[in-house]
Design a protein that fits this description.
This protein is an alpha/beta fold. The protein has helices spanning about 5-35, 70-75, 110-120, 135-145, 145-155, 180-190, 205-210, 215-230; strands at about 40-45, 60-65, 80, 95-100, 120-130, 195-200, 240-250. A seven-stranded mixed beta sheet has the order 3-2-1-4-5-7-6, sandwiched between helices. The chain starts with a helix and ends with a strand.
Length: about 250
């Protein structure tokens, strides 16, 4: 094997680890947390057609989505709710776990949804959030480009991907400031939640683009350095996805 081949495999392994580590870490947190509950209740908020986590048999898995088609496709749910997570009253529930993956960026008022989660959470419950980071290259491009461009870019970068509602890239993306990691952490502090886990990493979008083009790699790295210098190291434009687990203090 040539040194070039080894380098490519190393990069692929790094990305695979970096991309999947948050799934593994969150799964460990969920397994540990749910093991002590006799009859846990879980909400998948903006559930889509499938879950990314594994759950033991016998628990109550509720899904809420604005798409009846997505709910119909989801075969893992115990209960299905057709509704908007920003406005549907969750206070009548008592969920031990609320999971929201790649939904906040599509909402007009993410903080309203987060507040709704808090009202529907049990007194020792946890909230799992996975979302893009607005303060990244992919985040800025997503926010300030039209919807048709998102569809075009998806077709070019992911030609084998089915172009239907199962993929969050195809939904309009207002990408409000309140969905950024810092703002979510501030919301948590104001609402009696603590950050149990946080991981930020590069999205497959920019990683794949850099992999396909040496010029893109050089440009991205140069821009990355410039932004870090001008923001005193506070922003990294390639750190474009984050996972956060919030835990209620009491």
């Amino acid at each position: 094997m040539s040194s070039c081949d080894k380098f490519v495999r190393t990069r692929e392994a790094w990305h695979q680890y970096n991309h999947e580590m948050q799934l593994f870490e969150v799964q460990k947190i969920l397994d540990s947390f749910l093991a002590n509950l006799p009859a846990p209740k879980i909400l998948e908020a903006g559930c889509g057609s499938a879950s990314h986590y594994q759950f033991k048999p016998g628990l109550e898995l509720v899904g809420i989505d604005i798409s009846q088609e997505q709910l119909d496709r989801n075969k893992t749910l115990s209960k299905k709710i057709l509704g908007d997570i920003q406005t549907y009253d969750l206070s009548k529930f008592n969920f031990d776990v609320i999971i929201c993956r790649f939904v906040l960026e599509h909402l007009d008022d993410p903080e309203k949804a987060l507040a709704n989660f808090v009202r529907g959470l049990s007194h020792r419950g946890i909230i799992v959030l996975v979302a893009p980071n607005l303060f990244s290259l992919a985040g800025v491009v997503t926010k300030f480009t039209p919807f048709w461009f998102h569809r075009f870019a998806t077709r070019i970068l992911f030609p084998n991907k089915r172009m239907d509602a199962t993929h969050n890239e195809l939904f309009p993306t207002p990408f409000r400031l309140s969905a950024t990691p810092r703002q979510v952490m501030l919301f948590a502090k104001r609402n009696g939640l603590k950050v149990r886990y946080f991981h930020i990493y590069e999205a497959r979008f920019t990683w794949l683009l850099r992999r396909k083009s040496k010029l893109a790699t050089v440009l991205f790295r140069a821009l990355q350095v410039l932004v870090k210098v001008f923001t005193l190291g506070k922003l990294d434009i390639l750190q474009s996805r984050y996972t956060m687990v919030l835990e209620r203090n009491s």
